[in-house]
Amino acid sequence: MRIRSISRGLLLLCALLCALLVAACGSSTSQTATPPTATPAPLTSAGTVSATISGLGANPDHDDAIAASDTAIWVRNGATGTLVRIAPTTNTIVATIPVGHGEGGVALGNGAVWVVNSVEGTVSRIDPQTNQVTATITLTSQGSEVTQAIAVSPDAVWVTQFSQNALVRIDPRTNQVVATIAAQPGITGVSFGAESVWTCNHHDSAEGLAQVNPQTNQIQAQIAVGDTGAGMACSSVVALAQTVWTTSFSNEQYPTTLRRIDPAAHKVIATIPIPQAVAAPFHFAANEQGVWLYGDAGVYRVDPATNRPVGLLDTQDPRGIALGAGSVWVCKSDGTLLRITPAF
To answer: Is the pLDDT of residue 207 over 90?
Structure first.
């Protein structure tokens, strides 16, 4: 009887040890198991194409500059040396105006349309009532294929001079260059907003963004918007009444970063990487409803309420972008213009 009792005890002890070993093995396995990798949620649609306008002229080698209002859309084709006017009420071309050649910006203000002609080194002033060039202003540099940006403030027109590292001021009353603001290394972008002129200086990776006082023509602040370690440099700027947006990119790495700046505090308040690789760094558009950029994957919308990319519209080969008449306008290298109804 005692032998049977001892044997039964040994069996119970062995069973208990086995149970403990199994539990330990199971616990070890659960601790070392790799959890499944979370897949980022895809972006929703940024909008729908409501019209496709052709006949702008192919421009495969350069980006196109666009300016838009509620009454007219202006597309500048540097290859053909023309400015095309589209009526948003009919989505048709209503005028083709000879200007100059090369990559250059388009801006609206002071009762005119202003176009930079980088090859000729000039700015064309167009009367939107007659669709005629009423003045041609000579700049300080000529024969440059480098993109020159342009912006308009209430009493001035501002043009970037990349090769001169300078910002040029034009008086719209006289159509004359009245000031040249130096110390703008590799200037590539200019915009007016928050009662100041803002410039992107691509060769100044330490600071990048400069605030210019339009009353004194003096630089009054510089803000670091790049990443010197990653080689990110300020590329373009859009200034609104209470927010300044900049893009930065690296020549080696290509991805674009969008930054949001508080113009009163002179500091970056949001840094937003744009997903899915390359986004064109020199052309983007913004208003209070969103920031719009384009790249290899299509057209992105960034929500200013969350400072995150929230929408993507698949478009092939976009080359220019603008906001106006309740739509997003995207130019393509084949000479077509897309009208996009945004999704919010």
So the answer is: no
Tokens matching residue 343? 């999704």
Range in 27-36, 129-138, 259-268 with the lowest mean pLDDT: 27-36
Tokens in use for 97? 């105006």
Per the CB < 8 A criterion, the answer to whether 141 and 168 are in contact is no
DSSP-derived 3-state class of residue 265: coil
Domain boundaries, the chain: 47-342
What's the first-to-final CA gap in the chain, in angstroms? 84
For the domain spanning 47-342, the CATH number is: 2.130.10.10
**What pLDDT was estimated at residue 102?**
87
The position carrying tokens 């009054």 is: 220
Write down the pTM of the prediction: 0.85
Largest CA distance in the chain: 121
Only one residue has tokens 């505090």, namely 265
Q: Over 60: is that where the pLDDT of 4 sits?
A: no
